[in-house]
Design the sequence.
């Protein structure tokens, strides 16, 4: 089976968002940052409350309340911040590399237990090299040992999707 397609900047962005949202170590790191930032802001609020003079009502209550509010805003908006930063960083990186990534068509060949990717050069992977296959609303993401293959669903017909689902059923994560 052969699939010919081009990727656009949104395909790469969707992949990176998917990767960030589904990678356990990245999620653990972000959870730590989210909680640590909130705790730091709450600690500043507590320190301000107990160290500011009682004579200044504004300083004693309002300034610590602002830091408590900032802690909640940080905690509640952190996921959206990560999402938006992932999008902007991906677009920035892709724009630098767009000659190869966006202009060159991709030819993907499934044959003899191998996946061959032809773009500017040719890479061949064994089916066993596929760690996971994610199927989303818009894409198929093949995670390999050191690489990934992105296939937009709108470039596939039902037979091709069915072939991929059957071939990689053990590695399929929906």
Sequence:
């Amino acid at each position: 089976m052969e699939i010919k397609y081009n990727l656009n900047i949104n395909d790469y962005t969707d992949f990176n968002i998917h990767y960030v949202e589904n990678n356990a170590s990245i999620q653990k790191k972000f959870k730590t940052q989210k909680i640590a930032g909130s705790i730091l802001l709450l600690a500043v609020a507590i320190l301000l409350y107990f160290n500011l003079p009682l004579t200044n009502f504004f300083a004693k209550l309002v300034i610590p309340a602002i830091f408590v509010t900032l802690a909640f805003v940080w905690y509640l908006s952190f996921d959206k911040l990560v999402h938006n930063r992932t999008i902007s960083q991906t677009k920035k990186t892709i724009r630098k590399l767009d000659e190869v990534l966006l202009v060159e068509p991709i030819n993907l060949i499934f044959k003899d237990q191998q996946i061959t990717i032809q773009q500017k050069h040719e890479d061949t992977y064994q089916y066993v090299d596929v760690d996971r296959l994610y199927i989303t609303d818009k894409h198929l993401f093949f995670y390999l040992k050191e690489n990934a293959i992105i296939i937009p669903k709108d470039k596939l017909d039902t037979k091709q999707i069915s072939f991929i689902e059957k071939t990689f059923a053990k590695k399929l994560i929906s």
Q: What stands out?
A: The chain has two domains: 2-7+105-173, 9-102. The domain at 2-7+105-173 is CATH 2.30.29 (PH-domain like). The chain has a mean pLDDT of 87.
